[in-house]
Amino acid sequence: MTIPSFTLNDGNKIPALGLGTWQSTPDEVYHAVLTALEAGYRHIDTAAAYGNERSIGRAIKDSKIPREEIYVTTKLWCTFHKDPRAGLDESLEKLELDYVDLFLVHWPVMLNPNGNDLKFPTLPDGNRDIVHDWNFVNTWEKMQGLVGNGTTSIGVSNMDVVNLEKLLSAKTTKIVPSVNQVELHPNLPQHKLVEYCKSKGIVLEAYSPLGSTDSPLLKNEDLVAIGEKYGVSSATILISWSIWRGVVVLPKSVTPSRIESNFKTVDLKDEDGEAINKLYEKIGVKRYINPNWSPLVVFHSDD
Ligand code: A2P
Q1: Of 64, 115, 140, 249, which one has the fewest beta carbons inside 10 Å?
Q2: Which of 264, 260, 216 is nearest to 239 (CA)?
Q3: Mind listing the pLDDT tens digit for each residue in 63-73?
């Protein structure tokens, strides 16, 4: 099937499938992005915290594909919450771009920019060094000033319903996030969050859609069996299921054959999509990416 685009609440369009790049090293990601663009991908997802923006920028440039044909997302790291402008400018410089298409608040937590580590500052007790006189509502107030100034759209990541309610009800919130990028796969379908975001006009994006590194989902017998019906792998079924449910999907790979096959999605029949919706009842609910933000609660539920 050709990859569709979804329309965001600000009128912009986003390709429903993009290349995920978390845990791709700078060297790997350069080749991965070139392979992906060659295979037809027009959407690349990165983040300041991934440490690979320079290579991605170089690959985009070397691909010779016009900038406006490629959808690029990056994310504000936690130590930059008081100054999203500076975070965005740093990313643009590394990406060698004038603008990104989408700029997301990576986590709804501010970390100390003057702590013992540039990325993950910690306290003597080992917990992350969180700035407590600031919150994501304050960050969002500043993010809103970036629209049209280095980013086309803005959104959030790792936001659950409790935190989204807090954000949307704040009087400083004038722009509803276009996107919420979260972990989504059959072990963590988050049907309530999907419904909630749909009701608010927020498009969801799935990270770790295959279940992340060494995923047991790829060997799941039900997913393999559905794949056999379509003549494709369980990975293709996982990717196609996201698109079927209206969720942008960001599979990560640095392996050329996988990058290519992940782009060849199938049009899932409703009965198969619905069976995958319910798979969690059989295999259980499991969140793979769950950092310790103590004493803050980032995920109030897995629903
Ligand atoms: P690699 O990058 O070495 O190709 P997720 O997108 O859920 O985070 O999953 C990423 C993981 O899944 C990576 O370890 C990636 O390995 C692997 N992967 C990506 N595509 C496929 C595929 N089509 N088949 C099997 N494993 C895959």
Answers
A1: 64
A2: 264
A3: 999 999 999 99
Instruction: Indicate whether this model's pTM tops 0.85.
Output: yes
Q: How far is the CA of 35 from the centre of ligand 1 (A)?
A: 15
Amino acid at 151: T
SS3 131: coil
Q: Is the peptide bond before 295 cis (omega within 30 degrees of 0)?
A: yes
Which residue is closest in CA terms to ligand 1's atom 13?
213
Give the strand pairing for 248-249 and 13-15.
Answer: unpaired
* Cα(20) to centroid(ligand 1), Å: 10
What domains does the chain contain, in order, with CATH numbers? 5-283 (3.20.20.100)
Angle between helices 84-95 and 53-63 (to 10 degrees): 50
Closest CA to 175 of 196, 148, 194, 193: 148
Take atom 17 of ligand 1 and give the residue whose Cα is closest. 253
User: CA-to-CA distance for 158 and 246, rounded, in angstroms?
Assistant: 18
Residue 1 confidence (pLDDT): 75
Check if 20 has its Cβ closer than 6 Å to any atom of ligand 1: yes
Q: Is the CB of 210 under 6 A from ligand 1?
A: yes
Give the C-alpha separation, 208 to 253, whole Å. Answer: 11
Annotation: binding site: 106
